[in-house]
Amino acid sequence: MSTAILKRLSLDMFWPTFDPFLFCAFHDDNYPKANVSMGPAASLAGRPLGQDFSRIDNWSMYHGKTIPGFPAHPHRGFETVTIVNKGLVDHADSMGASGRYGEGDTQWMTAGEGVQHSEMFPLLNEEGGNPLELFQIWLNLPSKNKMVPPHFTMLWNEDTPVLKQADGKGREVSIKVVAGALEAVSPAPCPPNSWAADANNHVAIWLIDLPENAQWTLPAGSENLSRTLYFFEGERVELDGAKASVNEAFMLKSDASIVMQNLGKPARFLVLQGRPIGESVEQHGPFVMNTRAELQQAFSDYQRTQFGGWPWPRHDQVHDRSKDRFAEYADQQKG
């Protein structure tokens, strides 16, 4: 095994993550054509609606009962980074903000002191399939920022930089830079209270597309970082000569480079990197704090305040079918 590879792990829907990351879910659903209500035009019989992770026919309803997705639920103490490669997500939250995003867009939301939001997957194509592919990554907040005001921002696909490099044989490798500068490419700013906002924390979120038979070297970073490479689409690759198969993850030595050689059809990877926060973590469901007492306080505060309540007519809020991708922030700005 390459000296750059510290450990290899298998992948399912929920991927292993390491400090400062808390969680990474990979949703890959081949939804059928849509009905008039923006749900699937298919029978829902046999699905445990409200808790459907069944993958029947290669798609799930998750916590949705008519439209797939995740109706209103609370968070405190961390951030969600949602990267949508295919399909659309409708966002609504207790701050009054809303949006529809997808097809390469990223939403970065700081839950901070507490927010409710819904994440629904509206199906708009009534003539054919509605594929959805997204990552949701949970990035922890340090104790000093656990109770900052909630905030969300959009990183639109058109504004997200992509590093393109030839591999010496005419094959172009593409790396989408969501967070963390790579070579001379710098991403759009992340939210101000994020662990990623301090360049000294070296937080990186990169999506690598490696064409058939292409080769690329993931450059060395700083030492003592968490760095994980997720191989989620393709067939076979070699990492510093070590054979790897799709649906594997690799914990890497952060200050070592690694040569990635594709041996099959086009391959895709996600890289998560960052300096560990190194604080105690107490987590229960949607709340992530440092102590058990803070966790109990989070539940108490939510029961008392509902984190501002829910200003929308539906807990599974979706926006008008005719709307294009958009964002309306709590201060009424549009983007």
UniProtKB/TrEMBL annotation:
Residues 57-139 form the Pirin N-terminal domain. Pfam families: Pirin, Pirin_C. Residues 208-308 form the Pirin C-terminal domain. Fe cation binds at residues 73, 75, 117, 119. Binds 1 Fe cation per subunit. The keyword Manganese does not apply. Keywords: Iron, Metal-binding. The keyword Coiled coil does not apply. One of its GO terms (molecular function) is metal ion binding. InterPro entries: Pirin, Pirin_C_dom, Pirin_N_dom, RmlC-like_jellyroll, RmlC_Cupin_sf. Its cofactor is Fe cation. Belongs to the pirin family. This is Pirin family protein. It comes from Marinomonas transparens. The lineage of its organism: Bacteria, Pseudomonadati, Pseudomonadota, Gammaproteobacteria, Oceanospirillales.
